[in-house]
Amino acid sequence: MSTTNGSIAPGASRTTLAPPATNTTRPRSTGLIPTNNVTTKEGVTVRTRIDPTLTVDDVVRQLCVNLKVTEPSSNFALRDKDTDELVVNENLRKKIKNKANLKLVNSPNIEAAEIVQKLLVRDERTCKMALWSLKKFIREEKFAQEFLSHGGLAELAQIICTEHGNTLAYALEAMHNLMDLDYGWSTLDNTFVFKVVQILSSPNSLINVCRPATAILKKLVEADPMNAPGPLIASSSRAPPVAPPGSVYRYGFQIVFQQMRREKGSLETVVNRLGSADTAMILHSMMLINSLLSHVNDTEWDEFISELERLNVRKAVIRLMSSHNIDDLTSSILDFQANIVRVTYRKKSTLVEPEVEPLHESALEYIWHCSKVQEERDSDGEVLKWQKLGFLSENLVHEFQEVGELGLDCLRNFVADDPDLFSKVISEQLSRPVDRRCPIARASNEIVELLAEHWMIFAPAYSTSTTYQPFFLNFYRVHALATQFFLRMWNESGSAAGDFSRIVALARSQVKVALQRENMKPWHEVEHDFLDCEYRAVRDRQMQELEAEDDLLSKVPVRNLKEKITRESAEFVRQQRIQCLFQGAWFVNGIPTPANGPSRRPNGHWRFIRLDNGLKYLHYVDSAVQFAVRNGLEDLPERIEIAAITQIATGTCASPPNNLRDHLDLSPPSNLTPSPLSFSLLTATEGSLADQIASDQLRWADWTDGLNMLRRDSGHVTSDETAGYIKALTEIGLKIKLLDLSGEKVDIPSGLVAGPPPSNTDFFFSDLI
């Protein structure tokens, strides 16, 4: 092979160089068209023709031979000159096809060794420049392995513990990027975790320091042993199982929360930053709170949830819902909403046991103290205490059985809103004849049941809401308003003990009216609907509703059955959505709107995407035309890591104009209109990983909801289609179960059992019969 005329001798190398171009000499033709320009470390640019069948190691070896480099070829690597992306076997063909400008640089092992040496020097300028390079290169697995093998993790952790300002910010970003790997950082100890908590909590920390510090804590929370791939090791004690030695899945909620306890005010700082003027800081804080909520263990559950409630985190999120400049936070806000559904469900499912749980005993003592009522004894000498507040018996475990700890919390909050009013109401009721008294405590519990039914607090794992629910996050205030409504309807209608169920029906009707259009309705209208409506108007409307609705569905056993079928329907739809991801689909590569930041430029008009069986990566291929993609992943050379996706944003990109479809190097116009069938896979730091447009509404719903259900911390769905499917499956299953019973007008037994969800989509309700 000749490096001057480009001729190739038999058996010569398959990487050919044309002579360097100058202003005075025109290179002689080689007869072969160069594929790429390669710039050497000395700044000389040569034109090359690279055989795409070669490995990257072979290409580098032949380049070194042709350029007469004396050092071993193992000391060098190729990078994209424009993006600094490392050229590896998986993307070599893509770089050749796109005629990417390449550069010959130090290999990852040389680069990693040099960066570690620069970190050891501790010179501020040298260290800062090394960290700037490190935070880019550490995402590459080859570089990361070399960096770890040279002891770089310990040096990086030491810098985080000692430096400040931009040097600290770069170090934290590098550590966060390193933690995208599932290995290599398991030696980070509690001292490091505590230092990151301190950095996050310090009022003097720069915003560019707080963002990566918050993201690191989120990574540590998610590195829970229960999230580890593969089998866990059983513990010899009652402690939960642990990950194998060396696994990074050894941290989790408990490790992080213990260190946050040590730094007073750290959780408060995270919640307060939801009011930051920096949208990225809000996003990182929301994601950390969601991770903590998703991974909190039983031991610290009460303490953590109580602390969040004390810090008014719900109020902070409601304020975000009402903002108009936080579209990129939508997914995180819906995740938080879904987490609060799980919290509410758990409270509702937790028995009230005052003899066992001190918090329950304390809440009941507070309620009794505020009532200002004295105990009495009946004719048989039995104590009459809780019945005077409206319970049916003195057995509080039984009285709160259906509403659990949630009912106790609601009653306590109702009392705490105005203790004097509560005392006055109880005194007024006790002054009436027994059969004319409004049972306040029973009414409170019944309102809890109605609200749980309205917001479908049935399942611990799913929320089918696709819109903001600020009134749900205000559960205790809505409960107080509805309880006051119940009391007012009782008084205005002159009700007696036998009318309790009738007033419950009125309350159910009013709850539906007051809480409709929740994502658009102002709070003052909710207050008006509960506090100012007239009894006659409510009764007339309810009578109209009863004409169109059988009261069978309001019976407790039927509501319990509906809860069970809702859970099964949600799980069935989740499996169906993820199955769509396994099958894969073609999408148009969209052009993101400016508001959604930078994205990665595709290599064709179309993209086929498929989820791997391990649920870890989305594999894809870009193409100018659609083609028949084989099963498996052979035709899909590129991939996106699921763990890197922080948000599935919708309505974010537009279809490329016809003049850009075959000319992806042209700049798109700035006035493109986003497609309603578009979605983007966003990260917290890198912008968009993919911008896709579905062919129709069904495919858009399948993929946006499938990806949301797949993500570790997400429990919400995006589309009305998926929420509608879950609702339809529930209603069909319930009606089939009730056909015979309602036809005979027999009582509904409490032991109805719904069958498992169907295993296919052909007859999706057959197993519910």
UniProtKB/TrEMBL annotation:
Residues 359-515 form the ELMO domain. Keywords: Apoptosis, Phagocytosis, SH3-binding. SUPFAM superfamilies: ARM repeat. One of its GO terms (molecular function) is SH3 domain binding. GO terms for cellular component: plasma membrane. It comes from the Eukaryota. Residues 1-36 are annotated as: Disordered. The keyword Cell membrane does not apply. Involved in cytoskeletal rearrangements required for phagocytosis of apoptotic cells and cell motility. Acts in association with DOCK1 and CRK. Was initially proposed to be required in complex with DOCK1 to activate Rac Rho small GTPases. May enhance the guanine nucleotide exchange factor (GEF) activity of DOCK1. This is ELMO/CED-12 family-domain-containing protein. It comes from Suillus discolor.
